[in-house]
Amino acid sequence: MKSCPTCQQVYTDEGPDYCLNDGTPLAKTASGYNPGAAYAGQWQQPSPGWQPPPQGLGYPPPSPYPPQAYGQAGGGGAGLSKAALFTGLGSFATLLIVFLIAATGSRTRDTAAFAGIIFLLSLIAGLTAIVLGIVSLSMAGRNPAVGKAKGVIGLCLGVIPLLFLLFSLVAAGRRF
């Protein structure tokens, strides 16, 4: 147990090292714990010349981060622009894989089916990159902290497979 020699308040051993009423250092006592003793007296004014205890002695350190409300998001849309960028990169990479399969692969039905599946995945990723890019650009208009560049790059990379599909359909239509 600890007690204040000035105001006689009692604290537990895990409590602060200084009295919360007047700031004097607490003295160890051999008396038993009386839970009501710490709150029995009224709060007293600190004695003249009282200095607050130094930081770190019984008090938590100040947080370098500002407090946030419950449920408040920290990023505010930066994740969407990153998602648009990476989805656009994935769409473009899968389109390059289709070109590599078409250029180096044999002309079998299996490789054509595999290239077709990869191309469909490229189209789906391209559409996703376009949607995420548009959403991140609209959020960047409302929140200047959100970067526009990643959303624009993801949007542009997502359009490339769709343009390739459009040119392929036009070329196939002319052939027939």
3D architecture notes:
Helix content is 52%, strand content 3%. The model has no long low-confidence stretch (mean pLDDT 79). Helix 2 packs parallel to helix 4. It is mainly α and 176 residues long. The chain has four helices and three strands. It has two domains: 41 residues, no CATH class; 98 residues, no CATH class. A three-stranded antiparallel β-sheet has the order 2-1-3, with no helix packed on it.
Quick synopsis:
The protein is mostly helical. It folds into two domains: 1-41, no CATH class; 78-175, no CATH class. The protein has helices spanning 37-40, 78-104, 109-142, 149-175; strands spanning 2-3, 10-11, 27-28.
N- to C-terminal distance: 95 Å
Task: List low-pLDDT spans.
Answer: none
Query: What about the largest sheet?
Result: 3 strands, antiparallel
Percent helix range: 40-55%
H/E series, N to C?
A: EEEHHHH
Structural class estimated from helices and strands = mainly alpha
User: Hey, roughly how much beta strand do the residues contain?
Assistant: under 5%
Widest β-sheet, arrangement of strands = 2-1-3
Note the topology:
Layout: E1 2-3, E2 10-11, E3 27-28, H1 37-40, H2 78-104, H3 109-142, H4 149-175
Antiparallel strand pairs: 1-2, 1-3
Key descriptive features of the protein:
176 residues, mainly alpha, 2 domains, 4 helices, 3 strands
